[in-house]
Amino acid sequence: MSNANFQAYQARMQELTEDLSRVIELPEGESARVGDLLAADGYRKLQK
Hints:
Elements: H1 3-20, E1 23-25, E2 31-33, H2 34-47
């Protein structure tokens, strides 16, 4: 992997990490962090 590709990879991972803690509003007035929703979805898919 070239240094330029590695730097782009690091930058993208930083963006994703910051987005995981973002709180979004859900229907019915509730809220949840993006990371928690993705984890719950991943767990649900494992059960299938």
